[in-house]
Amino acid sequence: MVTSLQPGVWGVLATPFTGSVLDLDESGLARLCEHYQSIGVTGLTALGVFGEAARLTEQERATVLEIVTDTCELPIVVGATSLSTRVVIDEVNQAVEIVGDRIAAVMVQVNTAAPSALTDHLAAVHDATGLGIVVQDYPAVSGVSIRPESLVAALRGQPFCAAVKAESPPTAVAIHALAAGLQVPVFGGLGGIGLLDELAAGAAGAMTGFSAPEGLLACVRAWEQGGYEAAREAWLPYLPLATFEQQVGIALGIRKEALRMRGLIAESGVRLPGRGMPDELSEQLGRHLDAAKSAAAATL
Length: 300
Prior knowledge:
The protein is about 50% helix and about 15% strand. The mean pLDDT is about 95. It contains twelve helices and ten strands. About 50% of the residues are buried. The strands form two sheets. It has an eight-stranded parallel beta barrel with strand order 1-4-5-6-7-8-9-10, surrounded by six helices. Strand 9 (about 185-190), helix 8 (about 195-200) and strand 10 (about 205-210) form a beta-alpha-beta unit. The protein is of the alpha/beta class.
């Protein structure tokens, strides 16, 4: 039986690099894992888009999984980068060899807009690996756009589905349809920029990379305890940072620089074809981080 993911905040790990050739920064990755565990996230997602998984070698991906598994005790969702069924199965089997029963699910991207073909793809991955699947709808990365009702048709009643990660704007509209049509949790992404609206639409939480995950936690916990108004108040101090991080073309570079400025990683390098954050934005990023730090301190 596939177990649905627990609601809450699932942190998506960045992959820090070091030096002029951008080698994997193993100690920096371990610090990120320790930080996420210390603030109380539900689980971690490794080898996602935020982790630049498609830019890692097979050995580097293995090393990332080894570090995550050895550093923290949280459940782990492992991302698969390919859209090909056979290659996804290979990626997942390699991950299982390293992570073992610590894998809560594998995250697989939507690879077709045809519901029956998508069902066949995901079922084949599940049948070959035995793992539950977090279905990631992220057309900006996959190049595949699927209508929410088609995604519901592909997933409704399917035993392999552990959750859906909805990253196809307008996300609140998609989440409303998915949450109403499926019996599995639906998570928002995209750096948390639409988090409040996604929770109002029925999201079970967030699964995303954001340089201040404390804000994601504050918002989701406030929603659970006090509803919309409480969640809105909790999220407002972090929203300018979330918006700032979503600048087209440099979003990843901004987030990694924010993590560096927070002291969580040593360097903010991004592998090509990604782009680092322009120096001109450094002062403003510092202002946003100071505001987020003050908000986090006020909730302790």
